[in-house]
Amino acid sequence: MSVSPEAKTQTDLMLELEPVVAKEVDRHLSMAKEWFPHQYVPWSQGRDFDGPMGGDGWTPEDSTLSVEARESLIVNLLTEDNLPGYHNAIATVFGKEGAWGYWVNRWTAEENRHGIVIRDYLTVTRAVDPIALDRARMKHMQEGYDADHGDSFLHGAAYVSFQELATRVAHRNTGKVSNDPICEQMLTRVAADENLHMIFYRNLLSACLQVAPDQTMRAITDVVKGFQMPGHSIDGFLRKSVIIANAGIYDLRLHHDDVISPILRKWGVFDLEGLTGDGEKAREELGEFMGQLDAAATKFETRREERRARQAARKG
Fold first, then answer.
1. Domain that holds residue 46
2. How far is it, in rounded angstroms, from Cα 153 to Cα 162?
3. CATH code for the domain of 141
4. How far apart are CA 44 and CA 124, in angstroms?
5. Which residues are documented as binding site?
6. What total of structural domains would you count in the chain?
7. CB 306 within 8 A of CB 314
């Protein structure tokens, strides 16, 4: 190539990487398993609600889920609900043509199943107040979605590499704490999709590190340092996230150990050769930040254990 990695434009990169995207699409399609949301919902548990059907209105006693599982499912669903915003963001960055465009539409179609199945499960089992849930959906979707990375291809691809894995972890752990085998089976199926999506983006970023290492390292560092879950604009997100973290569904330790660190190791960022200038500076920043994140995770764990000990002592 006559253009150096440091000087490559976004257009240069996307043209050069299109064969990689096509290969990853083929790999994804060979691994993805067809599944149907309606098969993961216990329809026999359902009954009519109040309103035009003249059924029974929801009451808190209808739900058998713990507060932690319920809050996590609400966050997970409201996050999935904003799919139109995510589709717009990724289509803006990746485009609508060729292998890039095919992936955008395939990804969107697969993600849409997640919102369908979680909502059907919550409604049929009366796990949450359906009126409050839909009001929250309306409010959240009306806020829209603006990607923190704007229209940067490298930042966008780095973000979804981590975000897809974070979502997988959140879904799997929500299923585990639900104490409902049906819920756990459903969220395990959803998490399997998220894992394949993560692999797609992770492999794409691996190729980016080969063709534009300095630019990609800067994007990775920026994303890791500023990472927010896509549902951070949900009304009451901070309160809900604290409940979720205290339950061990998704917390700083999981974020460090099970999301960020494994992907960084897979990319080999701290062993990568050939970085110059801002690329090397970005890697140094990343190393410092990971140390800070690890320390913050340990501090959170310590405080959580102390709080649990106090609660246990009061009960005793």
1. 9-315
2. 15
3. 1.10.620.20
4. 8
5. 80, 111, 114, 164, 194, 197
6. 1
7. no
User: Residue 137: enclosing H or E segment and its boundaries?
Assistant: helix 130-143
Instruction: Fill in the DSSP letter of residue 239.
Output: H
Does 18 fall in a domain?
yes
| In-domain check, residue 93 | yes
Of 258, 66, 74, residue with least CA distance to 169: 258
User: Could you give the CA distance from residue 124 to residue 219 in angstroms, rounded to a whole number?
Assistant: 42
| CB contact set of 289 (below 8 Å; sequence gap of 6+) | 221, 224, 225
* Residues annotated in a binding site for Fe cation: 80, 111, 114, 164, 194, 197
pLDDT by 10s per residue, the chain, length 316: 333 444 578 888 999 999 999 999 999 999 999 999 999 999 999 999 999 989 999 999 999 999 999 999 999 999 999 999 999 999 998 999 999 999 999 999 999 999 999 999 999 999 999 999 999 999 999 988 887 776 789 999 999 999 999 999 999 999 999 999 999 999 999 999 999 999 999 999 999 999 999 999 999 999 999 999 888 889 899 999 999 999 999 999 999 999 999 999 999 999 999 899 999 999 999 999 999 999 999 999 999 988 888 877 877 6
CA atoms within 13 A on the CB side of 261: 12
The answer to whether position 4 is within a domain reads no
Is residue 2 domain-resident? no
Query: How far apart are alpha carbons 21 and 104 in whole angstroms?
Result: 11
Do residues 81 and 117 lie in contact, with contact meaning Cβ atoms separated by under 8 Å? no
The alpha-helical segments, DSSP class H, found in 32-177 are 67-81, 83-94, 98-124, 130-143, 153-177
For the question of whether the overall pTM of this predicted structure is more than 0.85, the answer is yes
d(CA 6, CA 214): 7
Token pair for residue 305? 């254990």
